[in-house]
Amino acid sequence: MRIYKTSDYNEMSRKAAHIIAAQVTLKGQSVLGLATGSSPVGTYKRLIELNSNKDLNFSEVFTVNLDEYKGLTPEHEQSYRYFMNDNFFNHINIKAENTHVPDGMAENPELECKRYEELICSLGGIDLQLLGIGHNGHIGFNEPGADFVPCTHCISLTESTIEANKRFFDDVEQVPREAYTMGIKAIMQARCVLMVISGKEKALIAKESFLGPITPQVPASILQLHNNFILVGDEAALSWL
Ligand code: GLP
């Protein structure tokens, strides 16, 4: 595990963007696993700048996103497909058909999970997986539970996640109760995992995840076992280091 402690969110974003840029520069056809949430937004902004300056080319890149709310259309402003288009894909020279997000409107959830898992395999797995972390240690929407779930699955969101994510909706009732998420296997098989973490409210879960025991009760703790895991965080989130 490599840890970079940065002064603030902007520096964290710059560092993370440079790591992703290096990956894409070295391998134009990289498969990037991508994340939503406020943590990676600054990273996407830096990557957009690099792309608009012609310092970075996404024309051959493939992306697979971690997760999507069940029941939200791609046009819904809180869907993760909308988030990705709005914060990243619409502003870079990536081919729309090379970007993948689970289909929140799929008629058959089981088939959708199977399709997404097969898609990740058919792309040859993930070169670099970008992650944020939930307040309860979730990665993607792999919520705390009795086991680490290996494959793409549909999950009932915990009350704490619904509570944390209600800020994006008009009221808590509108937060979907279920979501699709990539499983732990595809994340752990990524050739590099890069987590961005910011703010003092994430300090405790970061400490539990990376200094505590490896347990499915803290899903991010499994990253301690990854042989190429990079944690980029600001001083507030990594104050325990
Ligand atoms: C959501 C996403 C996660 C993300 C988390 C934290 O629950 N499914 O992938 O890491 O939010 O978001 P934020 O970075 O806004 O704290």
Provide a brief overview of the structure.
The protein has 241 residues and is of the alpha/beta class.
Helix/strand layout:
Blueprint lengths: L1 E5 L2 H18 L4 E4 L6 H12 L9 E4 L1 E3 L10 H8 L11 E2 L8 H14 L5 E4 L21 E4 L2 H7 L12 E4 L2 H6 L2 E6 L5 H9 L17 E6 L7
Parallel strand pairs: 1-10, 2-3, 2-6, 3-5, 6-9, 9-10
Antiparallel strand pairs: 4-8, 7-8
Bound molecules: 2-amino-2-deoxy-6-O-phosphono-alpha-D-glucopyranose (GLP).
Structure characterization notes:
This protein has 241 residues and is an alpha/beta fold. It has a single domain (2-234), classed as Rossmann fold, CATH 3.40.50. The chain is built from seven helices and ten strands. The longest helix is centred in the first third of the chain and has 18 residues, at 9-26. The protein is globular, with a radius of gyration of 17 Å. The model has no long low-confidence stretch (mean pLDDT 97). Bound molecules: 2-amino-2-deoxy-6-O-phosphono-alpha-D-glucopyranose.
What are the main properties of this structure?
241 residues; alpha/beta; Rossmann fold; three-stranded antiparallel β-sheet; 17% strand
Counting structural domains, the number is 1
Order of helices and strands: EHEHEEHEHEEHEHEHE
Q: Whole-Å distance between the termini?
A: 13 Å
What is the CATH architecture annotation? 3-Layer(aba) Sandwich
